[in-house]
Amino acid sequence: SCLWKGLAMSRDVIVLGGGIVGVATAIHLAKRGRSVLLVDRREPGRETSYGNAGIIQREGVRPRTFPRDIASIVRVAQNQSTDARYSLSVLPELAGPLFRYWLESEPERYKRTVAEYAPLIGRSIETHAELIEEAGAEDLIVRKGWISAFRTSEVLEREVAAAEGDRRDYGINFAALDGAALKAAEPNIQIEMAGGIHWLDPWTVTDPGALVSAYADLFTTLGGTIAVGDAATLEQWQTGWSVRTNDGIETARDVVIALGAWSREATAKLGYSLPLFVKRGYHMHYGDKGGTVLNHCMLDAEGGYMLAPMRKGIRITTGAEFSPRDAEPTPIQLERAERTARKLLPLGARVDPQPWMGSRPCTPDMKPIIGAAPRHSNLWFGFGHAHHGFTLGPVTGKLLAQAITGETPEVALAPFSAARFL
Q1: CA-based, 20 to 30 A from 66: which of 7, 98, 292, 332?
Q2: Sign of the CA dihedral 81, 85, 88, 94?
Q3: Does the pLDDT at position 416 exceed 80?
Q4: Which pLDDT tens digit goes with each residue over 269-299?
Q5: From CA 383, how far away is CA 389, in angstroms rounded?
Q6: Per DSSP, what are the bridge partners of residue 235?
Q7: What is the pLDDT of residue 7?
């Protein structure tokens, strides 16, 4: 390494991670005149950004809490539900983060989290809209919201009451649907449902991976460079950072770690012990059956899975699996979800040769880690978005680019600093 420590830096910024957060960060830095290298081990948008339900969740001001009522905890502990499943082998490692997750889900703490989280969600549509227009990706976007569907009136009433609070506090727009209105919106539903909530503000995407690819193409048209490389080779030197790529060693004054579920290893190497954990998820596409149409993305709230109309077919996405990130796939939740979904909606045969699996990067307080690293100069973090990485990628990228280039970020980053865990 002494051979290159005297070399001039080849870039202004290196962004590690080709998911939606890294790509959006790279775009916003390039738009501010920075020379940017985006580094990943594979092409952009192939990991977690590829496999979600494709919703830009403007309504999602409330991140998912850890259950605090006894009935829900017992249900999860039995390990038979579709929305949450765990591997026994990972529990010792997760005990600390999950206990803090439980603590942070206490109502008063959670209220503060939502208040800090809401400004990010509030900018989700506008920051995506900017990139969608510039990337020429309008053909991927559907602007008719999505639906939470409920099987029982008790749950429906509780959730509508919560939505009323979010409309009052955060300007969330929705329409409450009774059973007949839900059936009118989704005529192919085969069973009687209590009703639903039609979230009116969100946009949906018919191919999330293609949208990230379009954003990556926008980055290159802005003069950015994409390289295949290994984040594990990141090193600090005199006045900046270096990383090895297939094209050789690249150097830059600033580096952004936006590696999603792989961020813990990269930050641990630099001395940060962050309580990141993963929730794995699965998806599968299905053909239609006799002309089945799904008009909206639809959450079967009590079934614990999402149905999403995609280019490839109707996609089922699962809830959370607490398992080691790199363990062999165990798509038990997908099989449970498929059995339930086939009763709800006529689904054709599986389209994909095998289930897709991805890993959501999570923090115990349900907020992402965004901003300057506490112990290093010119090191920046952007990860830990859990279920909202696709939603929050562009706003995270914009905030990081503002901070890196000396602008005042339009959302204060203090609540998202890694310092809260150190």
Answers
A1: 332
A2: negative
A3: yes
A4: 999 999 999 999 999 999 988 888 999 999 9
A5: 8
A6: 242
A7: 54
Q: Tell me the two tokens of residue 323.
A: 């398992």
The packing angle between helices 389-404 and 124-135, to 10°, is 80
Please report, as a single letter, which amino acid is at residue 275. P
**Residue type for position 24:** A
Angle formed by the axes of helices 389-404 and 107-122, to 10°?
70
| pTM for the full predicted model | 0.94
Concatenated DSSP letters of 166-191: HHHHH---EEEEEHHHHHHH-TT--S
Extract the tokens encoding 106.
């206490």
- Give the Cα separation of 379 and 359 in Å (integer): 24
Of the chain, the end-to-end C-alpha distance in Å amounts to 30
Q: Which helix (H) or strand (E) holds 132?
A: helix 124-135
How many CB atoms within 10 Å of residue 4?
12
> Which pair of tokens denotes residue 18?
């080709």
- pLDDT > 90: what percent of the chain? 85
Q: Taking the mean position of all CA atoms in its chain, how far away is CA 365?
A: 15
The strand pair at 248-257 and 11-16 is best described as: parallel
Phi, psi for residue 131 in degrees, rounded to 5: -75, -35
Amino acid present at 418: A
Phi and psi torsions of 299, nearest 5° = -90, 125
Which tokens is 88 given? 């026994």
Structure tokens at 20: 């939606």
Tell me the sheet residues that pair with 277: 362
One-letter identity of residue 273: S
Q: Which of 181 and 51 is assigned the larger pLDDT?
A: 181
378, amino acid identity: N
